[in-house]
Design brief:
This protein is mainly alpha-helical. It folds into two domains: 111 residues, Rossmann fold, CATH 3.40.50; 104 residues, no CATH class. Helix content is 51%, strand content 6%. A three-stranded parallel β-sheet has the order 1-2-3, covered by helices on one side. β2, α3 and β3 form a beta-alpha-beta unit. The longest helix is centred in the last third of the chain and has 17 residues. The protein is globular. It starts with 15 loop residues before the first helix and ends with a helix.
Length: 218
Amino acid sequence: MILCLNPNDGSCNTCKSCLMFDDNNHSDYFEINKGKTESIKIDEIREMQEKIAEKPITSSKKVYVINNSEQMTKEAQNCLLKTLEEPPEFVTIILVVNNENTILTTIKSRCTRILFTDEVKEEFTDEEQKRYNELEKFFGNVNEYTILDVINKITVLYEDKENVFENLDFINMILIKKAKVDLKYLNYIDIVEETKNKLKANSNFDMCIDYLILNIWN
């Protein structure tokens, strides 16, 4: 979707960029793949950084994916940090992680955390599934509601303070799912992440949730 030449249509699957991607032959897409027992070392990150500065060839964007990012050595992570602090505007870097506790806090603070919906939903408890469904009903159809609907339908976020960060992660899962057909939902993720930051800074809880809901609704 990021590389597609017709982004308003999501992933069109017909443009030159999409066809190249489907053929595993895209000039602006790169991956670092290592086996589960292999380390991702600083030299590999440096090699990636050299390519990052080059402008895209086919698309308006470039995408770099580091699979099993928890296997990066600390030296590799610290090296990557320099790029995450000031990435070129045309570059998207995706770190695929199974255990985020192995990632340096300085790295995580410069990333947007996104849960992979299908894998996570399989492990939901009944209570979690109920909460997810309620949030999906609203945030998956946010444009259909009036402001009164907004106030009345999303009480779970105000009432469930104990699980607020888990609920916000649920919302990001929903937004990523919706973004497969409408890219504007990707912009809403920034609002969710800003809400997390406000809560972590001990801002007023209800005002933080107001900020989240009203900005996404607007």
